[in-house]
Each structure stands twice: as C-alpha cells, then as structure tokens.
C-alpha cells in the first residue's frame, strides 16, 4: 500500500517546516513500513547546517524515522487512536554511518520490535541508494489530547 | 534452565542499566514506580530487553503486575519454563 503526502498529512501532527517524509511506498500492517524523503538544497536547514557544506542534520533523520513510525502505528492500530493524538519520543539509540547531502533520496524502513496499546519500540534504517546512512531504535508513546 | 538466583541477578542488571540506578537499590521488594521512579516507557524497555535475552514473549496483560524485581523474576521464570 502507498500513501501520498495528503494521506500522510491526515495522520501526522507535524507541518511545514517539520514534515520530514514525502511518501509511504510500502506498508504491511503491524509488520513494516517504508517512507521516502527527498532531500533538496532548498531545505531550510541547509542555510545553517552548514554554510558552504550542506549536510542533513542527523537529528532530522531521526525525526523522519519517528514520523514514519507514527504513520506505521496509526495505520496498523487505528482503533487505539483518536484524532488529536500526541506522540512523543522516550529514548533513541542511533548510529550515523554516512552523511546525507542535497539530491539524496532517503528511504526509511521501520519495523516494530515491541508494540503495546499506546507505546512501542521500533527499529529504523535509513538508506540512500544501497548504502545505509543511519540506524536507530526508537521508543515512543502516544497519548490522547484530553489526558496529557 | 537457569536457576532463580542467576535470573534474578541478570534481570537486576538489565533494570539497573535501563533505569540508571544502582543495582543495590533494586531489592526484590523495592517498588519500581514509588521507590525507584520507573515510568511506562522504561517498563516497556525492560520487558523488551528481558524478552530478547530469554527469547520469550510476555503478554501485555502481565505488565501491570510487574511492580517489583520479585514479580519480574517470577513472571520471567514462568515464561522461560514454557519456552
């Protein structure tokens, strides 16, 4: 199953300039999801990171992984969630192997390690072409708006 | 199958590492939430680490029953025995 940006926007609370995935290209409920992020020189963060040496900040790769995980969670377990659900990260263990430059297309795969009713642990791999650029394990939780 | 003492010390180490507390503070009856400050995401991480170590699956309904090290050891042993 594929999801375009309109579908992604219905799920993610993040908006410009912090919506860091463009498309979902593969999705198997409760098993895995793959998203794409096209990295352009026009990204606002390249202005400062770094002048004359544009490299995508690693934390934003993590954020893109987190957003991919939200889509995975929301589409796999729609009954658990309501509109206005908030998501937050509890812990991240990450490794960055290669820099990401303008023109790269990030492919982010997320798989669940353990999922409970309103939280979970996922493993994420970001690659450009056939090279893995970052790997991470993310622990996150979801909360309804009224009981934050 | 590992004996209770070995499992207890292995699990204590996992919990100490994840919660960043001294292993001595994790006595069999110290309450995770009240005495040691555990939150739900730490609990999830601990359960996942124990599952990985012993290659077992602890169902979600057992999570609320894990209030002390003694509880965790007892439930882990129950599932280790089954696998």
Total count of strands of chain B: 0
Number of helices of chain A: 2
Global Rg of chain A:
15 Å
Average pLDDT taken over every residue of chain B? 91
Question: What would the principal axes of the Cα set say about the shape of chain A?
Answer: globular
What string gives the helices and strands of chain B in order? HHHH
Fill in the CATH topology of chain A: Thiol Ester Dehydrase, Chain A
Question: Could you characterize what this model shows?
Answer:
The complex is a heterodimer of chains A (148) and B (83). Chain A has 148 residues and is an alpha+beta fold. Chain A has a single domain (5-147), classed as Hotdog Thioesterase (Thiol Ester Dehydrase, Chain A), CATH 3.10.129.10. Chain A contains two helices and six strands; from the N terminus they run αββαββββ. A six-stranded antiparallel sheet of chain A has the order 1-2-4-5-6-3, covered by helices on one side. The radius of gyration of chain A is 15 Å and the shape is globular. Chain B has one domain (4-82): ACP-like (Non-ribosomal Peptide Synthetase Peptidyl Carrier Protein, Chain A), CATH 1.10.1200. In chain B, 60% of the residues lie in helices and 0% in strands. Chain B has four helices and no strands. Chain B has helices at residues 4-19, 32-36, 40-54, 69-82.
List the topology elements.
The complex is a heterodimer of chains A (148) and B (83).
Chain A: H1 5-11, E1 23-28, E2 32-38, H2 58-76, E3 86-96, E4 105-115, E5 119-128, E6 131-143
Antiparallel strand pairs in A: 1-2, 2-4, 3-6, 4-5, 5-6
Chain B: H1 4-19, H2 32-36, H3 40-54, H4 69-82
Helix pairs in contact in B: 1-3, 1-4
């Amino acid at each position: 199953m594929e999801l375009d940006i309109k579908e992604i926007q219905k799920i993610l609370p993040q908006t410009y300039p912090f919506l860091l995935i463009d498309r979902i290209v593969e999705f198997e409920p409760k098993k895995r999801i793959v998203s794409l992020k096209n990295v352009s020189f026009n990204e606002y963060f390249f202005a400062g990171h770094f002048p004359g040496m544009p490299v995508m900040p690693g934390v934003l790769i993590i954020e893109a992984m987190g957003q991919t995980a939200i889509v995975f969670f929301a589409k796999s377990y729609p009954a658990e969630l309501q509109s206005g659900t908030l998501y937050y990260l509890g812990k991240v263990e990450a490794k960055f192997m290669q820099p990401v430059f303008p023109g790269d297309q990030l492919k982010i795969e997320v798989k669940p390690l353990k999922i409970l009713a309103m939280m979970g642990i996922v493993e994420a791999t970001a690659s450009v072409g056939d090279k893995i650029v970052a790997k991470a394990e993310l622990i996150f939780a979801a909360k309804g708006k009224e009981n934050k | 199958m590992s004996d209770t003492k070995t499992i207890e010390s292995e699990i204590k180490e996992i919990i100490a590492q994840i919660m960043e507390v001294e292993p001595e503070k994790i006595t069999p009856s110290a309450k995770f939430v009240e005495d040691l400050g555990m939150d739900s995401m730490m609990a999830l991480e601990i359960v996942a680490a124990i599952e990985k170590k012993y290659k077992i699956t602890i169902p979600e309904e057992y999570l609320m029953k894990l209030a002390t090290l003694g509880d965790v050891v007892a439930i882990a042993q129950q599932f280790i025995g089954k696998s």
